[in-house]
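Technical annex, item 7. During the second reporting period the consortium partners agreed on a shared format for inverse folding records so that results from different sites could be compared directly. Each record opens with the tokenized structure and is followed by the designed sequence. A conforming record, contributed by the partner at site C, is shown below for reference.
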């Protein structure tokens, strides 16, 4: 199928299911427990209304910005998601090339099938950040940091919202599917992590029989872990997975250079707020000190506009990139970025915004604003 027959993320999402085996598709689309947060990430965005402003000269709209000092063509990057080889054989190499061509940022997952070094070889000029978890074994964390420094990664995305695995009920319904991630790494490789561990630990109850302690999260971790990471590297640290003003302030006090407001795409704790619900209080608390980014439920450029208006400097997209990859590899991922960029541009034209700094909070209201009518 030609790319140009698909014109929006929703169409890619529709064909996604047919490209994968049932368990692969479930792994990507699922959320935890009752999937309340997963659904609300979309629903809460839909509850917002845009107040258009007209006759403001939108003949030229500038979408360019910078992320921690690095220039990007538009404020939409790629969130870290595991195992891109399931979607396409070129895996994270294809994703990184798409981001490089579109001149935006890619965050490479800890759980990538391609290593950070290989990804860098194929997308040398692209802006790349590496995702790191709070591993129990800090030697592993440190080794990943050094490798990231040596292979031109410009930031460390420290994901803090996963002290344990989210309860993906639809995925973990039987023993076979619990082992899904182990099978994926056996089949497609385990990127930069291959040297630390043989397979992926997805069997919480059998933790003690698994090799090494790489995949075991440090459940005793406190903000001291962020202090420690800060003391080990000069790379910017972007703390991912924050949902309250209190934790956002702590992240800044412990040396974070930026924060990503995120609930892990509804895959961590269920019933936490939709990311867009949490964004305003976090932007108010720390937005004048560090850059605030956003992910969760972005499916079109209008969603991007809403997140920018409520205080995000940029947004990241997770599943939509996987839809594009599964459809047509690098081209598909690139097309997803292109679609979102075009839609944001259009939304800016309709709202009288010729630059990103024109996208003010006053342009977006909750639907209840109109309940008084
Ligand atoms: C299949 C899948 C795997 C993910 N793997 C990671 C990961 O390895 N590290 C991480 O920080 N977040 C991970 N996430 C969360 C994403 O980075 C991001 O927060 C989320 O997907 C954003 O929501 P969206 O998919 O609605 O755009 C994953 C999400 C999905 C769907």
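Designed sequence (site C submission):
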């Amino acid at each position: 199928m030609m790319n140009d027959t698909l014109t929006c993320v929703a169409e890619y999402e529709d064909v996604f299911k047919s490209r994968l085996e049932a368990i692969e598709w479930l792994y990507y689309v699922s959320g935890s427990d009752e999937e309340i947060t997963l659904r609300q990430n979309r629903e809460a965005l839909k509850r917002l209304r845009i107040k258009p402003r007209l006759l403001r000269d939108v003949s030229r709209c500038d979408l360019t910005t910078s992320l921690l000092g690095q220039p990007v063509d538009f404020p939409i990057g790629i969130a870290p998601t595991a195992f891109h080889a399931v979607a396409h054989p070129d895996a994270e190499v294809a994703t990184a090339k798409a981001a490089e061509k579109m001149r935006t940022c890619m965050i490479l997952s800890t759980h990538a099938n391609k290593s950070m070094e290989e990804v860098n070889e194929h997308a040398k000029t692209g802006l790349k950040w590496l995702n790191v978890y709070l591993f129990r074994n800090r030697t592993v964390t440190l080794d990943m940091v050094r490798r990231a420094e040596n292979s031109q990664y410009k930031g460390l995305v420290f994901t803090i919202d996963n002290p344990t695995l989210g309860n993906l009920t639809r995925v973990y319904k039987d023993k076979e599917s619990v082992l899904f991630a182990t099978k994926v790494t056996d089949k497609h490789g385990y990127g930069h992590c291959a040297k630390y561990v043989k397979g992926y630990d997805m069997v919480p109850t059998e933790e003690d029989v698994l090799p090494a302690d790489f995949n075991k999260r440090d459940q005793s971790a406190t903000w001291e872990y962020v202090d420690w990471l800060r003391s080990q590297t000069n790379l910017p640290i972007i703390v991912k997975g924050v949902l309250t003003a209190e934790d956002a302030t702590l992240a800044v006090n412990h040396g974070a250079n930026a924060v990503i407001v995120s609930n892990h795409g509804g895959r961590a704790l269920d019933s936490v707020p939709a990311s867009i619900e949490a964004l305003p209080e976090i932007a108010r608390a720390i937005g004048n000190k560090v850059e605030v980014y956003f992910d969760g439920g972005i499916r079109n450029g209008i969603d991007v506009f809403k997140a920018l208006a409520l205080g995000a400097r940029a947004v990241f997209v997770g599943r939509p990139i996987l839809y594009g990859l599964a459809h047509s590899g690098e081209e598909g991922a690139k097309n997803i970025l292109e679609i979102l960029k075009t839609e944001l541009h259009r939304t800016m034209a309709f709202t009288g915004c010729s630059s990103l700094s024109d996208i003010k909070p006053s342009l977006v209201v909750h639907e209840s604003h109109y309940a008084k009518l």
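The radius of gyration is 20 Å. The mean pLDDT is 92. All partners now use this format for quarterly exchanges.
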